[in-house]
């Protein structure tokens, strides 16, 4: 008996250790950590971790259990994104997942959430079809969708007699964005008169721009070329160098990350609508984010940092409200859930789990002492100002 007791104690300790290890909430961040959208991905991950920290008062615990974040790099490959999400749900046994960056990757991942009956919080992929025609009940999105971008920019740019052409990337993000923008313009009196789509890796926009100029040059009234673009290529700078003002055409676009806003300095007075700029929202969550991000990284928080933080806070608030990481309880807690973010209050719409949120009508101001153009606030467009359609 003297030899059995230590063995029993050791076995009990192992069992307790296994229980303790199991008593954690695992979250997968499945996102394009490497590839053309690397800058977006880094912001999104930093924001996610800061959101989890903020919402847990620095403890990284909720409901008495530690939160563990597992990172997986899709490399912007839809098939890889799908496989990694399967791995996260199956092998890693995560409670839920967040991501990805690319709309194309997101669309490949949506059926996996349904197959495994586990939640995927989409952040920051934008295509309408994610919470539209390809949606299922396990999908929630904290990021804005194409319709939110479109409605906000239609309010900022549309007016009777205005003629608008679009240039967009030829995949879900661009095509969904233009479709939503076309629909949103219908109530403004403006006309969408020409559409151009080019591959995402386009660097020479000459042919597309010339087709737009030809289509619009003889039209009367205010004329604008609205760009829907993500990533590199710099279509705005290159088309602006072609002097569209020769034909009375003004360039317009939505907001972007700080690095991209540097190109906006060539277009003082340009108007549009943006998802986030660190100096616009006035609330305690954004105050904390701006202060902490500046202290930790030496820069203000950017576009996708705010989105990642909104997702991280949503995760904690949902787990706290549900009292468990069980999927059906989380869905019940999240449908209609309101929570505070760097952009103010967000709300998951029950019908499609899209986060309703503010957008910001801006006008570009140039300060020679600032490396990027400053999108000064013209008007905050709140949840009630944005008639975002349900598309599923």
Automatic annotation (TrEMBL):
GO terms for biological process, alphabetical: amino acid transport
Q: Which Gene3D superfamilies match?
A: 3.40.50.2300
- Give the UniProt keywords, A-Z: Amino-acid transport, Signal, Transport
The residues covered by the Leucine-binding protein domain are 24-365
| InterPro entries in alphabetical order | BCAA_transport, Leu-bd, Peripla_BP_I
Q: Does the keyword Signal apply?
A: yes
Signal peptide start-end: 1-22
**Entry similarity comment:** Belongs to the leucine-binding protein family.
What is the protein name for this chain?
ABC transporter permease
Q: What is the species listed in this Swiss-Prot or TrEMBL entry?
A: Meridianimarinicoccus aquatilis
């Amino acid at each position: 008996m003297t030899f059995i007791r230590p063995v029993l104690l050791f076995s009990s300790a192992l069992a307790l250790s296994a229980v303790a290890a199991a008593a954690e909430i695992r979250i997968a961040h499945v996102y394009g950590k490497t590839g053309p959208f690397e800058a977006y991905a880094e912001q999104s991950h930093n924001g996610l971790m800061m959101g989890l920290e903020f919402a847990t008062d620095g403890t990284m615990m909720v409901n008495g259990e530690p939160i563990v974040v597992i990172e997986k790099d899709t490399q912007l490959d839809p098939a890889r994104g799908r496989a990694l999400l399967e791995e996260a749900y199956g092998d890693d046994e995560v409670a839920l997942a967040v991501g990805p960056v690319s709309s194309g990757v997101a669309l490949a991942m949506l059926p996996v959430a349904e197959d495994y009956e586990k939640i995927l919080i989409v952040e920051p992929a934008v295509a309408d079809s994610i919470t539209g025609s390809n949606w299922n009940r396990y999908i929630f999105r904290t990021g804005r969708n194409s319709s939110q971008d479109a409605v906000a920019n239609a309010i900022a740019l549309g007016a009777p007699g205005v003629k608008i052409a679009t240039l967009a990337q030829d995949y879900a993000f661009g095509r969904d964005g233009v479709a939503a923008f076309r629909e949103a313009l219908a109530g403004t009196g403006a006309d969408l008169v020409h559409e151009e789509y080019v591959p995402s890796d386009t660097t020479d926009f000459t042919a597309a721009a010339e087709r737009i100029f030809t289509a619009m040059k003889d039209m009367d009234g205010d004329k604008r070329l609205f760009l829907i673009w993500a990533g590199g290529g710099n279509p705005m700078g290159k088309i602006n160098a072609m002097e569209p003002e020769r034909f009375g055409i003004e360039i317009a676009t939505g907001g972007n990350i700080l690095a991209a806003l540097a190109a906006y300095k060539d277009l003082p007075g340009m108007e549009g609508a943006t998802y986030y700029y660190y100096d616009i929202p006035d609330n305690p969550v954004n105050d904390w984010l701006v202060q902490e991000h500046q202290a930790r990284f030496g820069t203000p928080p950017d576009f996708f940092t705010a989105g990642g933080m909104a997702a991280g806070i949503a995760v904690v608030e949902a787990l706290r409200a549900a009292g468990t990481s069980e999927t059906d309880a989380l869905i019940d807690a999240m449908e209609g859930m309101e929570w505070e973010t760097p952009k103010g209050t967000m709300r998951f719409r029950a019908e499609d789990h899209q986060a309703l949120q503010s957008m910001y009508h801006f006008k570009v101001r140039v300060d020679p002492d600032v490396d990027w153009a400053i999108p000064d606030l013209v008007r905050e467009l709140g949840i009630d100002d944005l008639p975002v359609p349900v598309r599923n």
